[in-house]
Amino acid sequence: MADARRPGTDAGTSARMARQRRVGTKPELALRRELHRRGKRFFVDRAPLPGLRRRADLVFPRRKVAVYVDGCFWHSCPQHATHPKNNAQWWADKLAGNVARDRDTDARLAAAGWTVVRIWEHEAADSAADLVMRALARGV
Question: pTM score, two decimals?
Fold first, then answer.
């Protein structure tokens, strides 16, 4: 049964969206490789807090650091966000909801004493790893 809230899409668009990876994207894998090269170990695709269904891409539980590698489209990157013309209002609401959920997640984790590192998919792995390393150093 179709979701009444979701607008209909053509078969090509549906197939393309179904191929979008949730875990193990190229930017995420590049960051993981760079952090491993620097000797860091972490959990992948894990909820930082019990009961919080929002999973971080990388989690350093002892240091209480959660890392999210955000896609430019899905999280409305200020530099690279695009806005679909088909079903424009539905997409605007969907993407705004993603951003609101991100801010809520950040606030919940901060309230629990966690440091949240948000990295855009277009950032270079070495500079992204530098951000993570600084967060880990502060969590000592």
Answer: 0.84
Q: How far apart are CA 55 and CA 62, in angstroms?
A: 17
Residues whose CB falls within 8 Å of the CB of residue 38, separated by 6 or more in sequence, listed in order: 129, 133
Query: What are the distances in angstroms from CA 105 to CA 29, 51, 139?
Result: 22, 12, 19
DSSP string of 38-100, one letter each residue: TT---EEEE-SSTT--PPEEEEETTTTEEEEEE-TTTTT-TTT----STTHHHHHHHHHHHHH
Q: What is the pLDDT of residues 93-113, one digit of tens each?
A: 999 999 999 999 999 999 999
d(CA 70, CA 122): 9
Q: How far apart are CA 111 and CA 114, in angstroms?
A: 7
Beta bridge partners of 68: 118
**CA distance linking residue 40 with residue 1, whole number of Å:** 45
Strand 115-120, strand 65-70: pairing:
parallel
Q: Which helix or strand (DSSP H or E) is residue 119 part of?
A: strand 115-120
